[in-house]
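Lab meeting tomorrow. Please check the following:
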Amino acid sequence: MAEREVEPAEALGALYANYRVSLTNTAQQALLAHGIPESVISAEDLVQNAFAKVLRHPASVEYPVSYLRVVIRTEAANRARQQARHNGLEAVRPIRCASTPCSPRMWPRWWPTAVPSSRPWRL
């Protein structure tokens, strides 16, 4: 007996049921990282928009959960740019410093501009 082929909408429904909480947490983290208040867009709206985008071309998505997370993060970044443009401000990107020092333009104004080569600064 042949197995019944699962429709893309049914598969996405199962994904929504299984990963809704996790994807909503991802959306909340993305909104917080970009400083977007809930009054602009909610985390649930981001998740629903991501699923709507996947429904447009469900067959082309190989790893749907990963794709949904990328769509959610991208949508949050786009909303942050829109909000910044709306407020007349330039979008601020988070500072990401690993073990290497950040570039001098990211240092606070009180930070010394000339760093002695014998004592490298560790941030």
